[in-house]
Amino acid sequence: MDRALIWLSLVSFFLASVTSEPKAKQQNVDIYSFHINSTVTSRYAITVITSRVANSLDESQEVHFQVKIPKNAFISKFRMTIEGKTYDGIVKQKEEAQQQYSQAVSRGQSAGLVSSVGRTLEEFKTSVTVAALSKVTFELTYEELLKRRLGKYELLINAQPTQPVADFKIDVYIHENRGISFLEVKGGLSTNELTNAITTTRSGPESWVRFYPTREQQKQCEGCGENGLNGDLIIMYDVERSKSKGELRTSQGYFVHYFAPTDVQRIPKNVVFVIDRSGSMQGRKIAQTRLAMLTILGDLSEDDHFGIIIFNGQVDSWKPELLKATQSNVEDAKQFVRQITARGSTDINAAVLKGVEMINRHPQEDSASILILLTDGDPTTGVTNTDKIQNNVKKAIQGKFPLYCLGFGFDVNFEFLKKMAMENDGVARRIYDDSDADQQLQGFYEEVATPLLTDIHISYTGAANVTQTNFSQYYNGSEIVVAGQLTDNSLDLFTNEITATSKSKRMEYHDTIDPTIHSNLPGFEDFIGRLWAYLTVKQLLEKELILKGQEKEAVRKEALDLSLKYDFVTPLTSMVVTKPQEEDIQVAHKPKETGLTEEELEIELFLSENTRGFYFTKPKDRKAPGRNVQPRRWIQNVSPTTTVLNASPVRFLIQAQDQSEPLCYDIPASQRLRLLQDPSSDFSMNGELIESGGTGFSQITIHYKTDLHMTLRTSEIIFSEGQNAVKFLWNQEPTNHETDSVSLILRNKEMDVSMGNTRVVILLHEQDGNSFLWPAVRQRPSTTTLPGLFGTLPVAYTTVTQSRSPKLKIQGQEVRVSKNRATDYSIHSAPRVGCWLVPFQVAMQGELSDFTVPSL
Ligand SMILES: *[C@@H]1O[C@H](CO)[C@@H](O)[C@H](O)[C@H]1NC(C)=O
Ligand SMILES: *[C@@H]1O[C@H](CO)[C@@H](O)[C@H](O)[C@H]1NC(C)=O
Ligand SMILES: *[C@@H]1O[C@H](CO)[C@@H](O)[C@H](O)[C@H]1NC(C)=O
Ligand SMILES: *[C@@H]1O[C@H](CO)[C@@H](O)[C@H](O)[C@H]1NC(C)=O
């Protein structure tokens, strides 16, 4: 084989499993128009993506619509127009939508989902069958309140139409009453030739950004190529602020109040850093933490006081109390930080309590105290019950200062960190385990580096249903936003009062409604109402997290009702899209963030040939953040893949306890699924279902410990350990491969894999000219349920009625089932067996989204 070709196939094999992989261009489909129209009114952004597509084939075919939107946004509308008819997505309660969806799935219909990609985006994906030489228009609307960070707002627009488009336009219109103090356009789409395709017009309170690249230009930006544009446009701006005045707007019975004074002196802070140095932090994470801490320490002001606590099973501090950030203290602390190494367990409780105690012992007058926890794992020693830790911490802090929790990577119990931060007036932030993690840490610190006010209370008269009004601290570069409803839709009684503590004194502010207000934009008159709903839902969802029992239910209900009223796709709702054909149903719901990093994108492979196969290595040195691997573009040109057609679902069997008849359930094709995960031994197996023409997996990956990876495809198997890799072919002579904790046996289209306590056999099936893979778990690492489709134990059920409409009782729930058949692919002969077909949610006691992964 040609060297370059081998290299390419390996690179593409890695990149194929990455979500940011360039999407394939659809054949015989002409996207003749693609418009993105974003309107930002007082930080509230409503974006509409309109894609018009023609099927240029003289037979009907599936046409795809796939776009990425910011995670923070709520989808509020989706519409397809085909042959003059419109099909609108309907927002429903999630459970209800899910039910409709699983019924559709068990009838053999596919479903489209929203999935999380990378740090900031989510992908919305759907498809529809379009008749020969006909057209379809897709229209997606999403809304978000832009948040001010480090002195600016950022509107992120992603464009990846998958082909150059004759009529491509991005229009952004920003209207800010106070005026716009600066506006800048950044992002991958504003590179190279394309800088010329952007025009910016500014006029008083209004700004327009237009991006109209020609077909040729669409191939020329960084990351763009034959498949046209692929990247982000980031519009950054800030609002003109006259000293301490806040900004108040009202419309149709709602108000919004922005408060971000700039003429206040900074308050010296007392900051304690609580840093995890458990074994899992070893390597790059701890190195990046050291790097970030050195910079952060260097940025402290002389009148700040600071402390550093490092912990694993043991809690140590740099100095027993907070010290002033003098040059010599900072130097001494830097020396301490340089020597932090990682090993051992994780005692979060003792470490945080120690931090609280240090702050509590320190004089608090005329200063702002901040506690920052950085951890990459669950509590494993000392108090490990997270409820207890939360209670302890809350009791110790008593609302006196905020606790910020930074969760490093995806092995942390982020929900726990979020709750703990929320309960203590702080926020939790994820630090992505990437080459720029040190900058993420510094970036977070910068946001809280300059406290300007503490104990901010805002009160309103003549208003109701007001969002959060108490804030622990206000930092330079941020902004406080409150929205609410006017009592009796009247301004007569409407007043406000803001009290806060600044460096030396208690401050009081009163804001009035700007008399010079420009009339609202037609079509967006009610944006303040929507903004209020957006903010209220976001805050209710956070509040719900830390409540229990009836209170939780009430808050949930309130958030749900508002989501439904405003058609927001939130974590409590889903959008049901019914397609013209066969009442086919798709459901879009807000995905959970899962363990995906951009790391995979940054793998560079170096190949060398060897008698045993082909070896590749990962470069040890990480590249500068933000640099993309070039070959992506190349692969995109060399190996375009064809797209999904007529996907049919894949049927899975679940063995039953004490019952002869197993259960079975269906999963729509081309999903990426978690198959088995054993956190106790760092074993995980994921798989991707074949897109069409098969009933199993096109690819299965196994990860074990940190550096063992195995990728099985129908063509080949690649096993890599640290720097080395070996390749097997399914039809080669039987062979063994043994290392310390791993044994691989390849025989007769079976790869038998033993890793630690787990043994799985991956079978290659060939049916009607199609080949696919199927995993069979032969030995489980644990006797309890584990995450993943194959992590369940045999299900116990009883038969309620056998008659014409049979019913089973499964996990205490009575469900209608139907008698069906499934193929047992866990053995080579693949026998057909009878089974009870049940909805996925019943079989697996969870949502499909709990079992999907963004990348293998
Ligand atoms: C963008 O949307 C707004 C609101 O619907 C509309 O007034 C405006 O004309 C649109 N702009 C373009 C360029 O389509
Ligand atoms: C707040 O930040 C701005 C720049 O974003 C800076 O000009 C100003 O001096 C800062 N204020 C304080 C009190 O540090
Ligand atoms: C806000 O703070 C005030 C004064 O401490 C208190 O009375 C009020 O209950 C707080 N409101 C909320 C919603 O916590
Ligand atoms: C506040 O919300 C409640 C519940 O939705 C509603 O009944 C009430 O009218 C609202 N108050 C005002 C002043 O609009």
From TrEMBL:
<dbReference type="Pfam" id="PF00092">
    <property type="entry name" value="VWA"/>
</dbReference>
<keyword id="KW-0964">Secreted</keyword>
<dbReference type="InterPro" id="IPR013694">
    <property type="entry name" value="VIT"/>
</dbReference>
<dbReference type="GO" id="GO:0004867">
    <property type="term" value="F:serine-type endopeptidase inhibitor activity"/>
</dbReference>
<protein>
    <submittedName>
        <fullName>Inter-alpha-trypsin inhibitor heavy chain H3</fullName>
    </submittedName>
</protein>
<dbReference type="InterPro" id="IPR002035">
    <property type="entry name" value="VWF_A"/>
</dbReference>
<feature type="domain" description="VIT">
    <location>
        <begin position="15"/>
        <end position="144"/>
    </location>
</feature>
<dbReference type="GO" id="GO:0005576">
    <property type="term" value="C:extracellular region"/>
</dbReference>
<dbReference type="Pfam" id="PF08487">
    <property type="entry name" value="VIT"/>
</dbReference>
<dbReference type="InterPro" id="IPR050934">
    <property type="entry name" value="ITIH"/>
</dbReference>
<feature type="domain" description="VWFA">
    <location>
        <begin position="270"/>
        <end position="448"/>
    </location>
</feature>
<keyword id="KW-0722">Serine protease inhibitor</keyword>
<feature type="signal peptide">
    <location>
        <begin position="1"/>
        <end position="20"/>
    </location>
</feature>
<keyword id="KW-0646">Protease inhibitor</keyword>
<comment type="similarity">
    <text>Belongs to the ITIH family.</text>
</comment>
<keyword id="KW-0732">Signal</keyword>
<dbReference type="InterPro" id="IPR036465">
    <property type="entry name" value="vWFA_dom_sf"/>
</dbReference>
<keyword id="KW-0325">Glycoprotein</keyword>
